Every structure is written in C-alpha cells, then in structure tokens.
Amino acid sequence: MKIHTYMGGLVGTNAYLLETSAGILAFDAPADLSIYLQQNEITAEALLLTHQHFDHVEDVAKLGLKTYAHSPSSADLILDQRARDWGLPITVSTYEVDHLLEGKTELQLCDLKIDLIHVPGHSPDSVCFHFPEEKILIAGDTLFAGGVGRTDLPHGEHELLMSGIREKLYLLPDDTTVYPGHGPATTIGQEKRSNPFI
User: Fold this and answer.
1) ∠192-53-180 over CA atoms, to 5°?
2) Whole-prediction pTM value?
C-alpha cells in the first residue's frame, strides 16, 4: 500500500490517498483536491471523512464520490458560516453522506480492513481510520505532531478529546504512523513521549 498526501485550502488541510492493488481511497476533501486528482489522472473509489469541518469538506461535492462519514452533512458540523465570520472566503457546496459510520467499528474497502475509532472532542463526528496490518492511523484533527485538535469551536470538549486520545489512540502500537489533518506525520510512540497537551 502507498499513501500520498495532498495539502489544500486556506488553512493547509491534509488529504490522503491510499493506493492499493484494489483501488484508491481518499480521506478528506480540502479545496481543489478534485483538480489535483484530474491533473494526475487519479480515480478514487470512495471518500472517507475524518470529520466535517469546512476545511475538510470544501471539495466533497466536486469530487462526486461515494462518501463515508460518522454523521449526516449539516451546517452545524461544517461551520462554514463561522469561517466567513472570521473573514475567510469559504463556501461549501451542498453534499450528501452516502454511508453513515456512527455505531460502526469496522469497514472493508479496497480489500482493506479499517478499524473505526470515534474520538469526539474536536468535533462530535470525529473518526480516526486505523489500518492495523499496515500500522497506519489517519487521525484528522484529533492528534497532531506535538499538538491536538482545538476545542474552542462549537461542540468542542477538551477533556473528552484528551480522554479519547489517552484511552483509544494511545493504546495503539507505538510504531503506528499517524497522518494528521494538518502538519507532518508522527507516530503514536513519539506523541506518548513528548506531546505537551496530553
């Protein structure tokens, strides 16, 4: 399996493309991901959303892929109006979530076993996608290299995020590579040793 990173949008949001012999899966959809896929002649089988904050879903409608997310699409999760209140020129086109992940713990796509780890606190719909055989975690905005997701947005809960990281993510093997929604990759072991927020 190969993993490719695309970064787009006004706040440098990461999207990941996991390439397997059975197809390509896209994780999150920052601005202009659709252009990147077209320019590189990449066809993805499905789109999986770590959560639905505006910077992670700007290109969902343009991609036109079968979309998996914890919860249905809603302005209450996307927060694009909040972004415009900050002065960011954000517009998120309406999209539908085709497959809801709430209550599920596992998914099979492109011959991959994906463990679903619900870690609210940054957003109530935050899901981390764990590939146990490959020791990969696509973490969205739950855990960063040296940081954690902000909890001062609507529906944010600091202690809920901290307990979710400690009780769910930190139980994964130390050599699990973490691909966050912003910034560089890290490992579970590195964050357990040095993340100042936990």
Assistant:
1) 30
2) 0.97
